[in-house]
């Protein structure tokens, strides 16, 4: 699991984030899979790209989940750079023999509809080109609900513990196919 604060349990009790819940679900389903959470709060696609090769060599994963890009958007980094980094990470993981799941993000509405659509399309394009699995929006059913405020910490960026099961449910259908 290569992600940012949304996967690194930012502001949450240790062991309560969606990645920890994933490990518990895999155990419940008798899937002998060890989840390595290499997520770092504040991580960008550039940071993930720079760390990926060493992580692949160290852990030799069968599946790599890439949940990065949100911090690129918040920092106003060029979409082309985010796309190139996601593409390179996906290709690198695949060349190492791993199946890849890209976990997409959306930008807040104040970025404008055009930018939001172009940002969301980055994940779909990379997944299509690299034939990787895709979850279009990690925070579906969390950020886009009428009562979304209750599912976010005071910063209104990081989901609360109450949102973590939904986040896992968003990822699970695609990840389950890959975690054989």
SSE blueprint:
Blueprint (H helix, E strand, L loop, with lengths): L1 E2 L14 H11 L16 H15 L3 E5 L2 H5 L4 H17 L3 E5 L9 H18 L2 E3 L25 H18 L2
Parallel strand pairs: 1-2, 2-3, 3-4
Helix pairs in contact: 1-6, 2-4, 4-5
Summary tags:
4 strands; Rossmann fold; alpha/beta; 180 residues; four-stranded parallel sheet; 6 helices; globular
Describe the structure.
The chain has helices at 18-28, 45-59, 70-74, 79-95, 113-130, 161-178, and strands at residues 2-3, 63-67, 99-103, 133-135. It has 180 residues and is α/β, with parallel strands linked by helices. It has one domain: SGNH hydrolase (Rossmann fold). It has a 4-stranded parallel beta sheet, sandwiched between helices. The longest helix has 18 residues, at 113-130. The model has no long low-confidence stretch (mean pLDDT 96).
């Amino acid at each position: 699991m290569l992600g940012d604060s949304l996967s690194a349990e930012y502001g949450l009790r240790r062991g309560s984030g969606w990645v920890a819940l994933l490990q518990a679900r895999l155990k419940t389903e008798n899937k002998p899979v060890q989840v390595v959470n290499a997520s770092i709060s504040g991580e960008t696609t550039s940071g993930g790209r720079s760390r990926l090769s060493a992580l692949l060599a160290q852990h030799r994963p069968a599946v790599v989940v890439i949940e990065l890009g949100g911090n690129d958007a918040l920092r106003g980094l060029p979409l082309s750079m985010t796309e190139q980094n996601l593409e390179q990470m996906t290709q690198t993981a695949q060349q190492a023999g791993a199946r890849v799941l890209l976990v997409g993000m959306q930008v807040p509405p104040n970025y404008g509809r055009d930018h939001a659509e172009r940002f969301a399309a980055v994940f779909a394009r990379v997944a299509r080109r690299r034939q990787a699995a895709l979850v279009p929006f990690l925070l579906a059913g969390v950020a886009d609900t009428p009562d979304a405020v209750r599912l976010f910490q005071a910063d209104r960026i990081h989901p609360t513990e109450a949102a973590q099961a939904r986040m896992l449910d968003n990822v699970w259908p695609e990840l389950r196919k890959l975690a054989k």
